[in-house]
Amino acid sequence: MSLFRLKRQISYWLNARHRRGHGIHSPYLFGLLTNVIENDGNYYAYETIDGVWASLMRSNVKVPGSTSTHEDVPEKLKLLVRRFDLLPKYGKMLFRLINEFQPKNIVCIGPVTGMTSLYLAKADSRISVNHYDGKKELLPVTKYLLETAEVENVTIHEGLPDFSSLDMEDAFVVLSYPEDPVRCHEVIQNIVRNPDEKPKVIVVNGIHQSQEMEEIWSELTTNEFVRVSLDFFTLGLAICLPDLQKENFVIRY
């Protein structure tokens, strides 16, 4: 963990006071926090995903080309999963949010290894999940994880999508570029520039990973179409439902 991120994490734990709906006056947001985000109930799909996670954490398999600076240096897959994918507590949060928002489709963009896709896909098998811009070295791992969990509603695409034709209306969008703020900003700008189609939700992983990522998150939340932003430190949740009052919260999670 970088010194920058450590300082931000300490500040977060000292200052994040919103928990269990405390200090939230909107009935809608109070219900979302207490009944969905902080719901600690169990779901049948969790058992399958938890099994895949446990298997990965026991593995000592190494994957080449795992870093942007040393493409030929292998790294343990379980470390990559922890670097680029969401930890189970956050994956399960997204699982519940998808059930709540019932988006038209789910778009995941970034070099995740497949664990994040499992949570997105298992939330509702009727909703299609499109995963873009994964690292090519990790694509076999992603495909293996999806096959192991018997997931059939995920389509994997190499590279970024064509944003001019990508259906973003009422979508649930997950961006995971914690170590690549330039790429993250590029993707967000493509989403913002579309005047007609806006997603229901945008999730950004790694919003406090660096000063650059913090600035990207702050810039996103100032857009008028983003009505509510929730900062969970590890990730940010931008809710784009037009009827909501514009508010920003730091949530202790």
TrEMBL record:
InterPro entries with a match to the protein in the record: SAM-dependent_MTases_sf
Top-level taxonomic group: Bacteria
Protein name per UniProt: O-methyltransferase
Native species: Prolixibacter denitrificans
